[in-house]
Amino acid sequence: MNRKRFTGSFASGAILFLTTVCFLTGRARAQTINGTFHGIVSDSTGAVLPGATVEVQNAATNLVRQTTTTGEGFYTITQLPPGHYAISASKSGFTTARQADVELLVNQDAEVNFTLQVGAVSQTVDVTAAPPVLQVANATISQVIGSKEVVDL
Asked: CATH code at 38?
């Protein structure tokens, strides 16, 4: 009889312990300080832009995070510490849109939408080879002539 009562109280204690742990885990998760930016990137006609790059940069720490929009033009960047951010959205063939000094508060889910204008595609060409050296000190022209050319004269 004593053993049965001990087993019952042990099981009750274990259930109480597990319930408490589960409850505290949920409460601890709710105490997060990080925030989230989310939104939609579209063009000037309102059509969504899948594959656009969205970048956030923390003004104080220079932390940079990037993501790409989904097929529906939606983006989400999570786990960002509170602070002031510069947010930009870009896609090839469109101008880059930027919003500076956007404040993200503790545990905030901030919505920032972008409308990109059609722009020209630009390319940058970097030339790394040095140009040939020209001699400008004298105006002589020289060329090596082989024996066959001399005989042919």
From this structure: 2.60.40.1120
Q: How far apart are CA 3 and CA 20, in angstroms?
A: 26
pTM higher than the cut 0.70: no
Whether residue 112 is found in the same domain as residue 96: yes
User: Considering the domain boundaries, does residue 134 fall inside one?
Assistant: no
Q: Rounded to whole angstroms, how far apart are CA atoms 75 and 40?
A: 6
Question: What are the pLDDT digits (tens) for 1-18?
Answer: 555 555 556 666 666 666
Beta-carbon contacts of 120 under 8 Å, excluding residues fewer than 6 positions away, are none
Domain-embedded: residue 139: no
- Per-residue burial over 102-126, b if 16 or more Cβ lie within 10 Å, else e, is eebeeeeebebebebeeeeeeeeee
Contacts of 129 (CB under 8 A, 6+ apart): none
Q: How many domains does the chain have?
A: 2
Domain extent at residue 70:
34-116
